[in-house]
Amino acid sequence: MGGASYDRDVYSSSSTGSWSGSTVSHKVLSKSSLDSCMLPTDRIIESTAKTPIVILLDVTGSNIAFARIVYDKMPMLYGQIEQQGYLEDFDISVCAVGDAYCDRYPLQVADFAKGAAIDDWLSQLVLEGGGGGQFCESYELAAYYMYRNTRFRADAKPILFYIADEAPYDTVNPAQAKAIVSDESTFNGDPFPLLREKFGERVFLLKRPYNDATEIAWSRCLPSKKYQQIIRLGSGEERSVVDLILGIIALMYGTRSVSDYKVDMINRGQDDERVRSVTKNLNPLEKSLALIQNVSGLDALKNASKRTSSPSKRL
11: how many CB neighbours lie within 10 A of its CB? Predict the structure, then answer.
């Protein structure tokens, strides 16, 4: 699908003015029925890249604007990763999540793609705008799918982003797993430990404020033992979601510090308010990563000391 270049006329990526959904995304993301290429059941989505990127969009009514933001800014997201050298070898899969208890299309799955081919998949998304109003969506079903139905090369370091506002259900419904993930599936547990294992703990939630119950639920799913995996977006910060994805990628793969990334944001025209809010959200992650590196360095020194102080063995 598509070629390697990724040029598309989109609305300005600057942070000035208010956003209510661009003409481009409203025109393109207007499908009411799902193409068979996006159906999830019994599919394997495979990446041959060093860094597969998965973006899981909540497309229920309360969160649907984020899907339009991601569509509009995808060329910028892809182009910045490539041009700034945040990653050398990557591809992207953008998938959609709804509520399997009430929506027609609770999981829409795109293959991993590069460049303009991403648009071919994005244009197939159905922004159903559903959801059941019970403070939960089927994020756990998407987690199980990504654990079970993705394939990466042996040295891959994948990363996954949820863009959501509600909570996952506590466990996977086995009937839904069988119907949506695989005809052979009988799983009925908590899939998030499996997901974190598959993605090497590189699982992040970019979350709009909703209520305390959803915060508690996600804290159980992403316990943040190593570093902050839940990024809470304040009111009015919705448009910073792609800036945050880029910043997290740059920090996680060691190609930028927060101060370096701040310069990148300024150079691409983001205003002072956007730069401040994004750097504020990225600072805790940078501190946690620095602590991990310091601990790893101390452990390496201790191990080296033990090796040099141990008596040599006779051959």
Answer: 14
H helices present in the chain, as ranges: 23-28, 64-83, 117-122, 139-148, 174-176, 192-198, 212-221, 241-252, 258-267, 272-309
Residue 204 and residue 202: Cα distance in Å, rounded? Answer: 7
Rg from Cα positions in the chain: 20
Angle at 232 between CA 74 and CA 220, to 5 degrees: 110
Task: Compute φ and ψ for 114, nearest 5 degrees.
Answer: -125, 150
- Residue 99 structure tokens: 């509520």
Q: In 3D, which of 167, 164, 169 has the Cα closest to residue 211?
A: 167
Distance from the Cα of residue 86 to its chain's centroid: 16
How far the first Cα of the chain sits from its last, in Å, is 60
251-288 residues labelled b (16+ CB within 10 A) or e (exposed): bbbebbebeebbebbeebebeeebbebbbebbeebbeb
- The model carries a pTM of 0.88
CA 126 centroid distance within chain: 19
pLDDT of 240 above 70: yes
Q: Can you give the pLDDT at residue 302?
A: 45
Give the pLDDT band of residue 43 (cuts 50, 70, 90). very high
Interval 151-178 mean pLDDT: 96
